[in-house]
């Protein structure tokens, strides 16, 4: 099968998996709803603004069709007969959380795939250059010392912290127009250690806000809203799409920087773009969901074993698999009598699986 056709077939299959996982997840909860009703409610949540009907097109995200928006009317695309209670539960409560989980998993798995290829290291993940630590520092600062943070939103504070950290690591590692990968890695480790100390200090002095800060750092999707989705989705989707255009260059970089240069790749420019875009999509995911580990580490490994190392196939499939993985693990996180942060579940599942790969000698340089 030709590569574009193979990529499309894998992508279509993983989209079906994501749709199934979404329906199952939305059906589970204190109020059980049958999957057919859930599917109808999800389709009912797809709406278009009335301006589109009159010819003025506007891009609008999924929203609850029962929520009025001042100055803007909505027309549902579908009109399935679903009880109002079930429609509200699915589209207003469960669906925002599920969509956000899919967006975050999509972003983290894609960034992890790029980082593993960039560093040619199977242990690389989206947090390797300190992006997650920077986001955590920004979020904890916003929680513990809101008066000192120039951003009014925890999301914005975490997002800014992540991007500032990525820029700082890159600036430290760059000399004479070149950014050695080893120096970049060491700079990331040093900055992470420093930020870890800052976070610990802020936690000690966070007072009554300690529990909120700790839960955020564990990674959670509790109380997710469509506003969270609107914050993360555009950055994650556009960032991953642009990363996909550099999949061939990432393949060439696996041969080594010198060989990549001889094959016509602008190595330093490509490295900068890959790092910037990976940091951007990671920042978007971490800013809305906290620090969720192992998604960007384990999912790319699994997909690499299944589809091979070609990033033209590996990147989109890993991103979609990451979306399904985080939706599934978040469903487990809220399935018990007491909800737990999803980061605990991903670590509990991801760490043993990664150890299994190590024992089987399936983890090797990419």
Automatic annotation (TrEMBL):
<keyword id="KW-0813">Transport</keyword>
<feature type="transmembrane region" description="Helical">
    <location>
        <begin position="131"/>
        <end position="149"/>
    </location>
</feature>
<feature type="transmembrane region" description="Helical">
    <location>
        <begin position="225"/>
        <end position="247"/>
    </location>
</feature>
<feature type="transmembrane region" description="Helical">
    <location>
        <begin position="156"/>
        <end position="173"/>
    </location>
</feature>
<dbReference type="InterPro" id="IPR037294">
    <property type="entry name" value="ABC_BtuC-like"/>
</dbReference>
<dbReference type="GO" id="GO:0005886">
    <property type="term" value="C:plasma membrane"/>
</dbReference>
<feature type="transmembrane region" description="Helical">
    <location>
        <begin position="185"/>
        <end position="204"/>
    </location>
</feature>
<keyword id="KW-1133">Transmembrane helix</keyword>
<dbReference type="GO" id="GO:0022857">
    <property type="term" value="F:transmembrane transporter activity"/>
</dbReference>
<feature type="transmembrane region" description="Helical">
    <location>
        <begin position="98"/>
        <end position="119"/>
    </location>
</feature>
<protein>
    <submittedName>
        <fullName>Cobalamin ABC transporter permease BtuC</fullName>
    </submittedName>
</protein>
<feature type="transmembrane region" description="Helical">
    <location>
        <begin position="340"/>
        <end position="359"/>
    </location>
</feature>
<keyword id="KW-1003">Cell membrane</keyword>
<keyword id="KW-0472">Membrane</keyword>
<feature type="transmembrane region" description="Helical">
    <location>
        <begin position="272"/>
        <end position="299"/>
    </location>
</feature>
<dbReference type="Pfam" id="PF01032">
    <property type="entry name" value="FecCD"/>
</dbReference>
<keyword id="KW-0812">Transmembrane</keyword>
<dbReference type="InterPro" id="IPR000522">
    <property type="entry name" value="ABC_transptr_permease_BtuC"/>
</dbReference>
<comment type="similarity">
    <text>Belongs to the binding-protein-dependent transport system permease family. FecCD subfamily.</text>
</comment>
């Amino acid at each position: 099968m030709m590569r574009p056709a193979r990529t499309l077939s894998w992508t279509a299959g993983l989209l079906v998996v994501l749709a199934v996982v979404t329906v199952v997840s939305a059906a589970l909860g204190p109020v059980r709803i049958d999957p057919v009703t859930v599917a109808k409610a999800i389709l009912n949540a797809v709406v278009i603004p009335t301006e589109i009907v009159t010819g003025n097109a506007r891009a609008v995200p999924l929203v609850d069709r029962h929520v009025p928006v001042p100055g803007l009317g909505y027309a549902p695309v579908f009109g399935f007969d679903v009880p109002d209670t079930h429609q509200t539960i699915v589209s207003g409560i469960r669906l925002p959380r599920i969509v956000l989980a899919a967006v975050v998993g999509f972003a983290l798995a894609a960034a992890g795939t790029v980082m593993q290829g960039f560093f040619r290291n199977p242990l690389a993940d989206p947090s390797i250059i300190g992006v997650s630590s920077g986001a955590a520092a920004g979020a904890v600062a916003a929680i513990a010392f809101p008066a000192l943070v120039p951003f009014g939103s925890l999301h914005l504070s975490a997002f800014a912290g992540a991007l500032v950290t990525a820029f700082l690591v890159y600036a430290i590692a760059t000399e004479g127009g070149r950014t050695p990968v080893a120096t970049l890695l060491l700079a990331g480790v040093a900055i992470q250690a420093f930020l870890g100390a800052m976070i610990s200090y802020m936690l000690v002095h966070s007072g009554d806000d300690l529990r909120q800060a700790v839960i955020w750092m564990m990674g959670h999707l509790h109380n997710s809203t469509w506003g969270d989705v609107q914050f993360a989705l555009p950055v994650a989707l556009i960032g991953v799409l642009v990363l996909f255009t550099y999949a061939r260059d990432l393949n060439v970089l696996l041969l080594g920087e010198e060989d990549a240069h001889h094959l016509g790749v602008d190595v330093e420019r490509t490295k900068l773009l890959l790092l910037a875009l990976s940091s951007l999509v990671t920042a978007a995911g971490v800013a809305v969901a906290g620090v969720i580990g192992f998604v960007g580490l384990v999912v790319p490994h699994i997909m690499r074993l299944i589809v091979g190392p070609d990033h033209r196939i590996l990147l989109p499939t890993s991103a979609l698999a990451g979306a399904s993985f985080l939706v599934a693990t978040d469903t487990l996180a809220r399935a018990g009598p007491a909800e737990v942060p999803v980061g605990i579940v991903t670590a509990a599942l991801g760490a043993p699986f990664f150890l299994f790969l190590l024992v089987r000698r399936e983890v090797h340089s990419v």
